[in-house]
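[job 4471] stage=fold_predict status=RUNNING
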Amino acid sequence: MVSAPLSWTPKLLFCDANYALGHCGPLFAVIWRDETSVAGARHLQSTFHDWAQEGQKHGLITIIEADAPLPSSEARDAVAEFLQSISDQCAVSAVIFEGAGFRSAAVRAVVTGLTMLAKQAYPHRVFGSVEETEPWYVDLAPTEWRLGGGRFIDSVAGIRALIED
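[job 4471] inference complete, writing structure tokens
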């Protein structure tokens, strides 16, 4: 039995100083605001699996804010475990590392390494901004999501707007 379609109303499921978890329609977002911890990665995994509807594909958006430090190797392993655990449920995944310069490039390299470690069964790519991500994500997402026309950007913005600084 397939559940009813998800609502496209942005919803925040969790938020603290280190990370936030939310969704809008079939899109699930994790926003790493500061430390990426093993506990945070495990919470991400359990929250995604509790939220995801059986028999449906979902999209993952991971945003790493510009000032977030590099995760420890243990935290990277926990995130890689999460990425593998959603192989049957994920249609497309993007990592967005905000910021510019050498540090941002270094973090993107670590994230790309995580991608190779996790060996996802779904398309997964690293970007520098939500706007840069949109054409790639929209092209690979199921057509019934109708993410074009700015809906992808609006959905991500809607989730982020719920985060209190």
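[job 4471] summary: Helices lie at 38-51, 73-85, 102-118, 130-140, 151-161.
[job 4471] exit 0
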